[in-house]
Design a protein that fits this description.
831 residues; alpha/beta; 7-stranded parallel β-sheet; 21 helices; 28 strands; Glyco_hydro_3_C_sf; hydrolase; Glyco_hydro_3_N_sf; Glyco_hydro_3_C; hydrolase activity
Length: 831
């Protein structure tokens, strides 16, 4: 007779409760912990998580596994492993886990997937800041669904993405992981990524809850001091949207403290708000070693067990990535009566319920991942000789020593990576009309990132996250550099590139070989011999001599904890281009001024940098935020004109290196004014981006000039492509509230729509605006919609307002909560 917990006809929560009743305390605690295989060793002591070497543990069959295991940490993303070997190893680990505990319950396996599956050989998507630049949730959802399918096929159950932190100070190293500086954009794009992962059966994990990006001094892990209204206004809405509109089943706490209370021990956030106010029923997982940091960093606990007790009581269900606080140390406190056993039961029930939902409690569950159950001669399987060595390889079901070929970089995922990269490239300026480049015959290419694949890759891509620990390791996927891509894009042009000029800007920044891409034969690589002071300037003059145009390629190399110029733990004091790259721009402008050669700047990186001192001297400026493995062809396509740029800035580009923009959400006193000599106005504002065609915005109207505080109203406008080529306009809807009970931002985004149009074509764009979108918080949980006058502004950026539509809200003041309208539906009707 089947026990109730194995009866698949029963609800997941009922099955989990039955199994929980049968478990000992140690077995229940076993469901709350994780093990991180392979994390205690690594090259040169480098880590992909803080304190990894000191705090991680290996699998121990006779220790933890006999009580069961909640999670298995990063089986693909810790060390380089071929996809088929990693899949087989995960299967074998699950066999050990299942056989070691008396109920045969496997672990949930999780992986990072911020820029695609963070595994060697997997497709590398653009970084999330590029998702924001694309303003295309539908494409982001499509990408996430394919990423989720890859994860699921090899036996992964949970993805640690997306990041929903809102950019507040771009000096923060993790700016590249954010979607942008606007909560509405972050929430809608983040929810789309969640929907994609969840549609593939992957548990999406929202991070980092909450306030992490508001740290003092833009320092990683630093304290956050924001008021309850700012928390509710800026930091919480993306999480609300991703939970309600995306259906995320997991949340990860942040590292920071909020006004002195660490997020990992914040009962008000993790229980009162998340569960009691918002009704969240999934799991809360720790950011890596975050529970231990309650003792080791925050100093609010005096032992691992008491750190675990604080986190458990606050609402953390699973300790990641390894067990230290939720294991025997916590068990001792439960047995002594210091910690209530009910708290363990509460967390274990949530974990077991999720495992039941995933099928891990089913009697017919198999550790064989789906990809190992397929016939390789069937769809997608080929002939079994994936490496061309003559060995047909696996020919049946998976066995410990023979596995089918596993492709983590399939054509359909590369195609989505290409489209997302192309949509994310932002044309910031084209002052002299030099773009596209097709008519230029000889082009000088300067800068350290011109021929470096690292320019395309964020810190959560495998080559930059793990690969840098393994010198000589190939990237695993083809990542064409910008120079290689330009040579392919414009075969009739001659490209002159100097290694001496690259060295003048700090030296080549790639530290991983890219041997999957041949060097372009149409470029000329000048020898860089002289390294004396001034030699770099001389090389610039030599490189641009005879050129029709100069391209200067600058930006970031991503890394972790100071091993890069952007990425986790790579915070900066000011927004100056790193590694003296500004000197290359200065030299290029000096060398080209006499002969009148136009200079085009391409910025490839993870944050915006101050470009004000060159703005009026550059012919054109292009920005791309770590656009992934297809980023080189995407940027080259924009430069050549094959791709008409449609990206828009998800975060403003500052004018001055030390006066980074306050952020476009600033209140009136946060804008430029006579009270301060410091002007925070960005050089290029949020939402800005140019096209190679022109658009007319016509017939803007409101369905009615007034509406009740609880009734939606339609906003309509016609967009016409008045140029000679197809292009995509991004229509943005902003709200201005002139009078309110608390200080409001001058404008804020409440809707947007991508409008693709052929030359001469027009379309009606319709927004369904609900007054709930005009609500604002008086505290963390109190939010109101008040009657009065508003302005809806149709705009091409946060400063380029095309139409202003007055709207009056009538009726009673309304108090709204988590069930309020969060999204402005849009519709594009092409003629």
């Amino acid at each position: 007779m089947t026990d109730p917990w194995q009866d698949t006809s029963l609800p997941a929560a009922e099955r989990a409760a039955d199994l929980l009743d049968r478990m000992t305390l140690d077995e229940r605690l076993g469901q709350l912990v994780s093990i991180w295989p392979g994390s205690a060793t690594g090259a040169d002591g480098q880590e992909v998580a803080p304190s990894q070497r000191q705090l991680a543990q290996e699998i121990d069959d006779q220790g933890l596994l006999r009580h069961g295991l909640g999670q298995l940490t990063r089986p693909f993303g810790t060390q380089p492993v071929k996809a088929d070997e990693g899949t087989a190893a995960l299967r074998d680990a699950q066999l050990r886990i299942r056989e070691a505990n008396r109920f045969g319950v496997p672990a949930m396996a999780h992986e990072e997937c911020l820029t695609g599956f963070t595994a060697w050989g997997a497709t590398i998507l653009p970084t999330p800041l590029a998702w924001g630049a694309a303003f295309d949730p539908e494409l982001v959802e499509e990408a996430a669904a394919l990423v989720g399918a890859s994860l699921r096929s090899v036996g992964i159950h949970q993805g640690l993405a997306p990041v929903l932190d809102v950019t507040r100070d771009p000096r923060w190293g993790r700016t590249e992981e954010t979607i942008g500086e606007d909560p509405y954009l972050v929430g809608t794009v983040g929810a789309a990524y969640v929907r994609g992962l969840e549609s593939a059966g992957i548990v999406a994990t929202l991070k980092h809850f909450a306030g992490y990006s508001g740290s003092r001094g833009a320092r990683n892990h630093a304290p956050v001091a924001v008021g309850p209204r700012e928390l509710a206004e800026v930091y919480l809405p993306p999480f609300e949207t991703a939970l309600r509109e995306g259906g995320a089943r997991s949340v990860m706490h942040a590292y920071n403290d909020l006004d002195g209370v660490p997020a990992a021990a914040h009962h008000g956030l993790l229980t009162q708000l998340l569960r009691e106010e918002w009704g969240f029923t999934g799991t809360v997982v720790a950011d890596y070693f975050g529970v231990s940091f309650l003792e080791l960093s925050h100093g609010v606990a005096d032992s691992p067990g008491r750190a675990g007790a604080l986190a458990l009581a606050a609402g953390v269900d699973v300790e990641l990535p390894a067990v230290r606080c939720f294991g025997e140390a916590l068990a001792e406190l439960v047995r002594s009566g210091e910690v209530a056993e009910e708290l363990v039961d509460r967390a274990a029930l949530r974990v077991l319920t999720q495992k039941a939902e995933l099928g891990l409690l089913d009697p017919d569950w198999s550790p064989e991942p789906p990809v190992l159950r397929q016939d390789p001669a069937g769809p997608g399987g080929g002939d079994g000789d994936s490496n061309g060595d003559g060995d047909p390889g696996y020919q049946g079901h998976g066995t410990p020593d023979r596995t089918p070929p596993v492709d983590l970089d399939p054509p359909e995922l590369r195609d989505v990576a290409r489209r997302l990269a192309e949509e994310s490239v932002v044309l910031l300026a084209d002052r002299e009309g030099v773009l596209p480049l097709g008519r230029h015959r000889q082009i000088a290419v300067l800068g350290p990132l011109a021929d470096d694949p690292a320019a395309m890759l964020g810190c959560y891509t495998f080559p930059r996250h793990v690969g840098t620990e393994h010198p000589g390791l190939p990237l695993g996927v083809e990542v064409p550099t910008l120079l290689q891509s330009l040579c392919r894009e414009l075969p009739g042009s001659r490209f002159v590139h100097s290694t001496a000029v690259a060295a003048a800007g700090g030296g080549p920044i790639s530290d991983a070989p890219n041997d999957s891409v041949d060097s372009p034969t149409t470029s000329v690589d000048l020898p860089g011999a002289d390294t004396r002071p001034g030699a770099g300037t001389e090389a610039v003059f030599a490189t641009v001599s005879g050129a029709d145009l100069a391209l200067v390629v600058v930006g970031d190399r991503s890394g972790l904890f100071g091993r890069g110029t952007s990425g986790e733990g790579c915070d900066v004091a000011e927004l100056e281009l790193p590694e003296s790259q500004g000197e290359i721009i200065d030299a290029a402008l000096a060398a080209t001024e006499g002969p009148g050669i136009p200079v085009v700047l391409i910025v490839l990186g993870g944050r915006p940098y101050a470009l004000g001192r060159w703005a009026d001297r550059l012919a054109a400026v292009v920005q791309a935020f770590f656009p992934g493995q297809e980023g080189g062809p995407a940027v080259a396509g924009v430069l050549s004109g094959r791709v008409n740029p449609s990206g828009r800035l998800p975060v403003g580009v500052p004018r001055h290196r030390g006066g980074q923009p306050w952020g476009y959400l600033a209140a009136p006193l946060g804008q430029a004014g006579g009270a301060s000599s410091l002007d925070p106005t960005p050089l290029y504002p949020f939402g800005h981006g140019l096209s190679y065609t022109t658009f007319a915005w016509e017939e803007a109207s409101l369905e009615a000039p007034e509406t009740a505080t609880d009734t939606a109203v339609d906003v309509r406008m016609r967009v016409r492509n008045t140029g000679r080529r197809a292009g995509t306009e991004v229509v943005q809807l902003y709200l201005h509230d002139p009078v309110a009970r608390v200080v409001r931002p001058v404008i804020r985004l409440v809707g947007y729509a991508r409008v693709p149009l052929a030359a001469g074509e027009s379309a009606e764009v319709r927004f369904r605006f609900h007054p709930d979108l005009a609500s604002y918080p008086l505290g963390v949980t109190e939010r109101i919609v008040e009657p009065g006058d508003l302005e809806l502004r149709l705009a091409a950026s946060s400063t380029d307002i095309r139409h202003t539509l007055p709207l009056r809200l009538t009726g009673e003041e309304r108090h709204v909560g988590y069930d309020r309208t969060l999204v402005c539906p849009t519709e594009v009707r092409t003629d």
